[in-house]
Amino acid sequence: MTAAAAVLPGTFANGVARGRVEIVQFLRDRTAVVFTFAFPAMLLLLFGTIFGDDYENSGISVAQVYTASMIAYGILNTGFITMGSGLALDREDGTLKRLHGTPITSTAYLLGKLILVFVLSVAEVATLLLVGVLVYDMPMPEASHWVTFAWLFLLSVIACTLCGIAVSALVKHARTAGAILNVPVVALQFISGVFIHPITQLPAWLITVASFFPVKWMSQGFRYVFLPDSMKRYEAAGQWELGRTAMVLGAWCVIGLVLCLLTFRWSEKDQ
Q1: Chain mean position to CA 192
Q2: Which residues, in sequence order, are CB contacts of 40 under 8 Å at separation 6+?
Q3: Which string of DSSP letters, residue by residue, matches 75-107?
Q4: Residue ranges of the domains in the chain?
Q5: How far apart are CA 154 and CA 247, in angstroms?
Q6: Which class for 108: exposed (0-12), middle (13-18), buried (19 or more C-beta within 10 A)?
Q7: What are the tens digits of pLDDT across the range 139-173?
Q8: Are 214 and 248 in contact (CB under 8 A)?
């Protein structure tokens, strides 16, 4: 028994292996691939075309502002919705129950999901930037801004993924997952400065509400990365507030982890 246990892969190895399976399964679903990558890019093309070229005589096009802001939407859409609906489906079709009878622990399973979301988010951001560069002449930031992009991207993916895992407990049937999960996603885009910018156009109380959630800080952070410093005057505080952004996203990573530990279950019957 001891010798057999010694050769079993550990949690990390199981998680990586599960991540490969998740990626392969996702790529086999052509509908999911097209929707995940094409929908945010399509919204970017629509917003960039409809709302004109120059952003309040700033020398920055509206499309470039939307390109930076829509990165937050792409990550939220990929992490929150993909994770929430995927977990609900795995629970409903018995995948989780079957995995529960294998050496894969809940940590390894969730690590596999996180790997899937990370890979998809990288591809999503690359797609949006490609549209921004090729269609809207989006300039690439200087090297120091890429450092900010790295920690901002990582915290955003972790926070959205963990929240997606936690909220999956509220989804009773996989077929209703999209409807349930899209409600907070769409609402947060409008009040967080993603679809409506400058965010100061919104009532002060709505901006305050948005400040409690990660999307406002994600979109604001990505605007810092890809837009010139002069654009900070259009933010709610007139500053980029990178320190506060890191604190809020870090707090949501902790909140999401706690909620995951409290709500994750292998089947509907588990309590």
Answers
A1: 14
A2: 70, 73, 74, 77, 124, 127, 128
A3: HHIIIIIHHHHHHHHHHHTTHHHHHHTSS--HH
A4: 9-263
A5: 13
A6: buried
A7: 889 888 999 999 999 999 999 999 988 888 777 77
A8: yes
